[in-house]
Design brief:
Largest sheet: 5 strands, parallel
Radius of gyration: 28 Å
CATH architecture of the largest domain: 3-Layer(aba) Sandwich
CATH superfamily of the largest domain: HUPs
Number of helices: 20
Strand content: 5-15%
Helix content: 40-55%
Number of domains: 3
Number of strands: 13
Strand order of the largest sheet: 6-5-4-10-11
Oligomer: single chain
Length: 568
C-alpha cells in the first residue's frame, strides 16, 4: 500500500470510529482546489443526510474529536468541507523512499490480479496504406495493454488483420492491369497502398470496373487460381511492412489472427445460425435482423454470395475464448464501427455467449488542412511521417550538439520521433479528434513529449553536474521546507491513483495530463530555488527529490511506450 493511501485509510478509519459507523470510504476524500486549503478534504453533505445533522455540525464535531497524531498536522473547516493538512516530513519521507525503492515498479498495483484480458488492436488492412489514422489505433491499443498490465491483469495483446475483403480485390485488379511490369520498391507494402489509391481513381472513371472487381473477389475466395496465388504473394508484402512498423514502434503481439483463416468456420456458423433462425435471408442476403433491439440490421453475406466482416468476427470471437480462457475480450477500433460491435455482441449473446465483450472506440485523426482518406490518397503514411520527424530532429540535434557522433544522433532522433508519434496519438481522450500538426508536436515548450523528455534530460544534467557519485545516502527530509517541495511530494504521491484511474477508464491521456503537470511543477521549482549551490544537506535532499520526479515521469512515459533521454 502506498504512502498516500495509508494516510487516507487512517483518516477514514478514525472518522468512522468517531461516528461509530462505517459510512465513510477512502474514495470520499477529495483534493482541495487550492493547496492553502489543505491536502485532503471530506465533503460533509452526504454525511448530513445519513446522520441527520447539518453539514456544519458534522464538520465541527469531527474536527473536535479527531486525534491528529503524527500523521495530520492541521484540520480546518472550509464551508461544508473538513480539510486535513498532512505532516509534510512524514509524507516526504514515505513518498520519496518508496519511489526510490520501487523505481520502475512505482505506481503499479494488483487490482486486476487473476483477470485474463485480450486486447485486439492494429486491425490494419493488407493491400492498403498504413497511415497516421492507423497509428492512433496502434498507439491507443498498446497503451491500454500497458495500463492494464500496470494494474495487475494478465493481458494478451493480439492483432487481427483484414486480409480478405473487397479492398484486396481492388488492389490486385489495379496491380495486374497497371503496375505488374513496374520494378518493385524495397517497401512493397507501401507500393500496394499506392496501388489501392490508383484502383479507386480508375473505378471513379469507369463504373463497370466494379463488376470485374467482384469477380476478382470471388476468385480469391475460391482459394485457387491465379488471383489467389497473387493474393498470397502480395499479402506477405503487407505483413512484412506491418512487422517493420511494429518493431520500430516497439509494439508486441502475443498472437496475430487473419480474417482469411476464419471465413470458412464463420460460414459454417452462419449456416447453423440460419437454421436456428438467429439469422435470416433478405433479398438474397443473409442478415441478423436486430431491429427489435434498436440495432438495425447486420449483414453477413451479400446477395452475390461474397462475405462481409461479421462472418469472420463471429468465428474469431469464440476462438479467442477457447484458446486463451479469457475473462474479457476488448476490441479497439474507430468510433465509426461502434454500431457494428453492438450488433456483433448482440448476435454473440443470442448464440449463447456469456463472456464479456468490450468495444473501445476512438475518433479520427485529421491533418491541419482537413480530413484524411485512403481512397483518395489524401493521407500521411507512417513512412512519410517518420521520415519527416527523423530529418527535422536530426537537424535540430546537430545544431545543438556539434560534437555528437552520427550513431548517437541517430539514436536520439529515433527515440524522439517514436515519442512524438505516440504522445500525439494519446494526449487527448479517445473520443476527441486529433489534428496532427508536426510543427507543434516538435516544440520544446508546450504540451509535447519533447517538453517532458527535455525535463528528464535537464534533471539528469543537474545530477551529473552535482558530481555526486550516487544518491544512496540518508536524506534529511527536514531540509525540504519549501511549499513547492511539499506540493511536488503530494503530486508524486498521487501517481498510483492516476494509474488506477487511467486503467479503469482505458484512458492514457489521464497519465499524460498528470506527468505534464508534474513536468511543469518541476520546471517552476528549478527556476525558483538554488540546487547545486545550496548547502550540502539541502542540495542532497533536493537532488533526491529531482531524481524521484524524473523516475515518475519516466514511469508515466513507459505506460505510453515512450523512452526518456539522458541528453537532448
Amino acid at each position: 500500500m502506498y504512502t498516500l493511501e495509508k494516510h487516507k485509510k487512517k483518516i477514514v478509519n478514525q472518522i468512522n470510529k468517531i461516528l461509530e459507523k462505517k459510512i465513510v470510504k477512502v474514495d470520499d476524500l477529495e483534493y482541495p482546489p487550492n493547496p492553502e486549503m489543505g491536502d485532503l478534504s471530506l465533503p460533509c453533505f452526504s454525511l448530513a443526510k445519513k446522520i441527520g445533522k447539518s453539514p456544519a455540525d458534522i464538520a465541527s464535531y469531527l474536527m473536535s474529536e479527531f486525534d491528529r497524531g503524527e500523521m495530520v498536522k492541521g484540520i480546518k473547516i472550509v464551508g461544508f468541507y473538513l480539510n486535513f493538512t498532512l505532516n509534510k516530513i512524514k509524507m516526504t519521507e514515505g513518498v520519496l523512499n518508496e519511489i526510490k525503492s520501487d523505481k520502475n515498479e512505482y505506481g503499479k498495483n494488483g487490482n486486476g490480479k487473476g483477470k485474463r484480458v485480450m486486447i485486439e488492436f492494429s486491425n490494419a488492412n493488407t493491400h492498403k496504406e498504413f497511415h497516421v489514422g492507423h497509428l492512433r489505433n496502434l498507439c491507443y491499443g498498446d497503451s491500454v495493454v500497458k495500463l492494464l498490465n500496470a494494474n495487475g491483469s494478465k493481458v494478451i495483446p493480439v492483432s487481427y488483420i483484414n486480409d480478405f475483403g473487397i479492398h484486396v480485390a481492388k488492389t490486385l485488379w489495379a496491380y495486374k492491369n497497371f503496375k505488374i511490369n513496374e520494378k518493385l520498391p524495397e517497401n512493397k507494402g507501401y507500393f500496394l497502398g499506392q496501388t489501392y489509391v490508383l484502383a479507386n481513381t480508375k473505378i471513379e472513371e469507369d463504373k463497370t470496373v466494379s463488376q470485374i472487381i467482384e469477380m476478382t473477389m470471388k476468385s480469391i475466395e475460391s482459394r485457387k487460381g491465379e488471383e489467389y496465388e497473387l493474393w498470397k504473394k502480395t499479402r506477405q508484402w503487407s505483413i512484412e511492412q506491418f512487422d517493420k512498423i511494429y518493431n520500430e514502434l516497439e509494439v508486441k503481439f502475443d498472437d496475430t489472427f487473419y480474417e482469411s483463416d476464419f471465413i470458412e468456420k464463420g460460414l459454417d456458423m452462419v449456416g447453423e445460425l440460419y437454421e436456428k433462425e438467429v439469422l435470416v435471408k433478405s433479398e438474397g442476403a443473409v442478415i441478423a435482423n436486430l431491429e427489435k433491439y434498436d440495432l438495425g440490421v447486420l449483414m453477413f453475406v451479400r446477395s452475390n454470395g461474397t462475405t462481409l466482416y461479421p462472418v469472420a468476427d463471429l468465428a474469431l470471437a469464440g476462438a479467442k475464448f477457447d484458446k486463451y480462457n479469457l475473462d474479457k475480450s476488448i476490441y479497439v477500433t474507430d468510433n465509426r464501427q461502434g454500431l457494428h460491435f453492438k450488433q456483433l455482441f448482440k448476435v454473440l449473446e443470442l448464440t449463447g455467449h456469456k463472456e464479456k465483450f468490450v468495444h473501445l472506440g476512438y475518433d479520427v485523426v485529421k491533418l491541419p488542412f482537413g480530413m484524411m482518406s485512403s481512397r483518395s490518397g489524401n493521407v500521411i503514411t507512417y513512412e512519410d511521417l517518420r521520415e519527416q520527424l527523423v530529418v527535422r530532429i536530426t537537424e535540430e540535434t546537430k545544431k545543438r550538439h556539434k560534437d555528437w557522433s552520427e550513431e548517437k544522433i541517430k539514436k536520439v532522433a529515433h527515440v524522439i520521433s517514436v515519442g512524438v508519434i505516440k504522445f500525439e496519438m494519446l494526449k487527448v481522450g479517445a473520443n476527441q479528434i486529433i489534428t496532427f500538426d508536426i510543427e507543434k508536436a516538435l516544440e520544446f515548450s508546450g504540451f509535447t513529449v519533447v517538453y517532458l523528455q527535455y525535463s528528464c534530460a535537464r534533471i539528469s544534467s543537474i545530477i551529473r553536474k552535482s558530481k555526486v557519485e550516487n544518491l544512496e545516502f540518508e536524506v534529511d527530509f527536514n531540509t525540504l521546507l519549501e511549499d513547492r517541495e511539499k506540493n511536488l511530494v503530494l503530486k508524486l504521491a498521487k501517481y498510483p491513483e492516476i494509474v488506477i484511474r487511467a486503467g479503469e477508464k482505458y484512458d492514457s491521456s489521464i497519465v499524460i495530463k498528470y506527468i505534464f503537470e508534474l513536468g511543469q511543477m518541476f520546471n517552476d521549482y528549478y527556476h525558483s530555488v538554488q540546487i547545486l549551490s545550496a548547502e550540502n544537506k539541502v542540495r542532497n535532499a533536493r537532488l533526491v527529490l529531482l531524481e524521484q520526479i524524473r523516475q515518475v515521469i519516466e514511469n508515466g512515459l513507459q505506460l505510453l511506450g515512450i523512452e526518456i533521454l539522458e541528453e537532448m
